[in-house]
Amino acid sequence: MDDLESEFNLKVVLVCFKQCLNEKEEVLLEYYLDGWRGLVRFLNSLGTIFSFISKDVVTKLQIMDQLRSGPQQEHYSSLQAMVAYEVGNQLVDLERRSRHPDSGCRTVLRLHRALHWLQLFLEGVRTSPEDARTSALCTDSYNASLATYHPWIIRRAVTVAFCALPTRKVFLESMNVGSSQQAVEMLDEALPFIERVYNISQKLYAEHALLDLP
C-alpha cells in the first residue's frame, strides 16, 4: 500500500484495522500505518479540503517507516513495544521538543488524534439522516477532537474549507464500495475496529502520561 495517489477503497482500510490487533490486543504498527495510508487516499479523494491533515499524516508515516526500517526496528513491531522501548530508554521529549523531536511516541500520538477526528466524523456520517450536511458533521467532529491542538487561525481556515464537502450521498459513494447504503453498511463493520484500536492506544498513552507530548 505504498502508492498514496491510488484510488481509495473503504474495504481496504477495514481489512487493515481488522488485522491491527493481535490476540494480546497489541496494536501492530504495520497494519496501523497501512490503515492510515488508506485513509490518506480517502482524504486526497476529497480534494484539497483536507490537505492540511493529509500532508502532515504523510510526513508522520515517513518518520514511522524510517524507525521501522532502522537499526532499532525490532522495537517498532507494535505500539506497546515502541512505547516500552522509547519510554524505558528516555527517547521521548516529555515537556518540550529538544533531543528527540520525532520520537515514535510523539509521531503516533499525532496520528492517534487525527484518527479520533475521522472516527467521529465517519460515525456521524453513518448515523445521520440522508439530508444531513457533511460540512456540519465534519466541523462538529473537528471541534470535538483536533481543534483542541490547533491555533485559532488554522481552526478558522479549516472550518471554512469544510463547507466545500459534498452531499452525504456523494460523500458515501466516494468510498468506492457501491451505493451510499452499501457504504453505510461497510462503515457499520469498519468503525468498531477503528474505535477499538483508538481506545487501546488511548489507554496505553494515558497509562504512560504521553497524551500531551509537545
UniProtKB/TrEMBL annotation:
GO terms for biological process: negative regulation of interleukin-1 beta production. This is Ceramide-1-phosphate transfer protein. Its main location: membrane. Pfam families: GLTP (PF08718). InterPro entries: GLTP_sf (IPR036497), Glycolipid_transfer_prot_dom (IPR014830). It is found in: Cell membrane; Cytoplasm, Cytosol; Endosome membrane; Golgi apparatus, trans-Golgi network membrane. Residues 28-176 form the Glycolipid transfer protein domain. PANTHER family: CERAMIDE-1-PHOSPHATE TRANSFER PROTEIN (PTHR10219:SF20), GLYCOLIPID TRANSFER PROTEIN-RELATED (PTHR10219). One of its GO terms (molecular function) is ceramide 1-phosphate transfer activity. It catalyses: N-(hexadecanoyl)-sphing-4-enine-1-phosphate(in) = N-(hexadecanoyl)-sphing-4-enine-1-phosphate(out); N-(9Z-octadecenoyl)-sphing-4-enine-1-phosphate(in) = N-(9Z-octadecenoyl)-sphing-4-enine-1-phosphate(out). It comes from Odocoileus virginianus (White-tailed deer). Belongs to the GLTP family. Keywords: Cell membrane, Cytoplasm, Endosome, Golgi apparatus, Lipid transport, Lipid-binding, Membrane, Nucleus, Transport. One of its GO terms (cellular component) is plasma membrane.
